[in-house]
Amino acid sequence: MHELSIVQGVVEICESAAAGKRVLAVVMEIGVLSNVMPDAVEFCFEACTKETLLDGARLVIDRVPGRAKCRKCAAEFTVKAYYEKCPACGEYKVDILSGEELRVKELEVE
Amino acid sequence: MCTTCGCGPEENNHHDHGHDHGPAHSHTHDHVHGHKHEHKHDHHHAGTASKTISVETDVLAKNNRLAAGNRALFDQKGVFVLNLVSSPGSGKTTILERTLRDLNGKLSFAVIEGDQQTDNDAVRIAATGVPVKQVNTGAGCHLDAHMVCHALDNFDVDNLDILMIENVGNLVCPATFDLGENHKVVVLSVTEGEDKPLKYPSMFHNADIMLLNKIDLLPHLDFDVEKCKEFARRVNPGIRIFDVSSKSGEGMDAWYEWLAAGTRKQSDGGA
Predict the structure, then answer these.
(1) Do B176 and A1 touch (CB under 8 A)?
(2) Which residues from A are below 8 Å from B49, CB to CB?
(3) Closest-CA residue in chain A for B18?
(4) Domain holding A35: CATH number?
(5) Pairs of residues, one from chain A and one from chain B, whose beta carbons lie less than 8 Å apart
(6) ipTM of the predicted structure?
(7) Number of compact structural domains in chain A
(8) Which among A63, B33, B61, B244 has most CB atoms closer than 10 A?
(9) Residue B212 banded pLDDT, cuts 50, 70, 90
């Protein structure tokens, strides 16, 4: 479960950004193609934030949908996984436009 | 303090935040820890406005920064670096043993072995005469760039052609962590089922080389090689696939040629 190290990274980023202030809420962006499960992040968040500036903070996760562009016909479409073909022409060679995000977007501090 | 990554002497894989949080932190001692807070903290802040801070930081930024440091060192020293990933039991260590023995005297190797526990794999690699460093991740499910950075202290990087990093056997987590390698090499054995690329797409998407191992067993299995390759290419159209048997040696020459070509390119300044 690599979400544990992911959340440790989140805590580190937030404590640095909060500069000593208590964190009330953390907004994260987690893309559907990011290989990170929101449920597991939530599970780890409570454990990892104890006795930090984030203790008791609310975690808000924005799920970013996957979008891809076909290299052959340039159609843009939504994907849930890496192996989906272009719905317009059936091509598998696509460029991922979004969905790989794994970011701390913003904090609400005291 | 480590001059490479800036970590303290006591530190290993994660940073201790100490107790320098200032007065704002003192409220935490009013709570009993180890239970879920059933109330929100709003009542603490009556009259005080909260403030929103825009952060916009990639969670993997720190690992990526350390990986970039590793990669810069490898480029400077002309070391060709591979990150071997797979499920447990696909044959990564056996592929390494055979590769190290067959290329002994032709290329100089070092190996980092990642496992949760034991140094069994490091013992096997050491028997080939190649320098090896075992990294035990404990509860951790993957190697990260920080662990690799420290493992490098064990090797004479100036006189190295290839560094093989055998990641923890796991088709999920190691996909996310860049170690500074030139290539992620995913090993899939034919005893595992041809649909693994579809079941674990992140790993096959992020790897650019695939070793289809244990092909000596194909006569005994219903494994559909072409279907497996088609699935891998759906997830990653550019993936390069070598069919190998680390036991019989079949197909290993093509892999060795690719290794030698990559090493030449890297020592010439850019793989």
Answers:
(1) no
(2) none
(3) A52
(4) 3.30.2320.50
(5) 134
(6) 0.91
(7) 1
(8) B244
(9) very high
